[in-house]
User: Which sequence fits this backbone?
C-alpha cells in the first residue's frame, strides 16, 4: 500500500514527536527529549564518550518532577 516493505514498518500508537513524563504528565518537546537523552542516557556502544552529566544509572529524568519517567508519547 505504501511502497515500503512490511519488514521495515513499525506499528505504534501515538507519536515519537514528543514525550511525556509518566509521573507528572508534563509534555516534553522532541528537542528537550533529545537533550535529556544526550545528558542522562549512557552510550553503551562507546563508553569512552559518556555524556558528562551521566551518573552510574542511565535515566530519562523529568526536568519538572526529577523522576526518571520520561518516554516518547507512543505505545509499541
Assistant:
Amino acid at each position: 500500500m505504501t511502497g515500503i516493505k512490511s519488514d521495515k514498518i513499525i506499528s505504534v500508537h501515538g507519536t515519537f514527536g514528543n514525550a511525556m513524563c509518566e509521573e507528572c504528565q508534563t509534555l516534553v518537546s522532541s528537542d528537550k527529549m533529545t537533550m535529556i537523552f544526550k545528558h542522562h542516557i549512557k552510550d553503551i556502544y562507546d563508553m569512552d564518550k559518556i555524556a558528562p552529566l551521566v551518573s552510574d544509572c542511565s535515566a530519562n529524568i523529568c526536568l519538572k518532577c526529577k523522576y526518571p519517567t520520561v518516554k516518547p508519547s507512543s505505545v509499541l
In short: The chain has one domain: 16-75.
